[in-house]
Amino acid sequence: MLQRTILLTGLLLAGTGALDAAENRLERVQKDRADVTAGGLWVYNDLNQGFAEARRTGKPLAIVFR
Amino acid sequence: MECRGIDDQLVRHDPKIQSLMKEFVGVRVVQFNGTDLARFQFDYDQTFAMFFMNADGTIYGRFGTRSDMKKADREISIDGLGKTLAAALELHKGYPANQSAFVAKTGPAPRFSRPEQYPSLKGRYQATLDAAKPVQSCMHCHQPLEAERKMFRAAGQPIPEEILHTWPMPDVVGLSLDPKEKAKVRRVIPGSTAEKDGFKAGDEITSLGGQPIISIADVQFVMQFAKTPARLNAEVLRGGKKTPLMLTLDAGWRRVSDFGWRVSSWDLRRMATGGLKVDALAGEALAKAGLGADKLALEIKHAGEYGEHAAAKNAGFRKGDIIVAIDGRTRRMTEAEWLAYLLTKPAGSKIPATVLRGGQRVELQLPTQQ
Question: Which of B28, B36, B230, B244 has the most neighbouring CB atoms within 10 Å?
Answer without folding.
Answer: B28
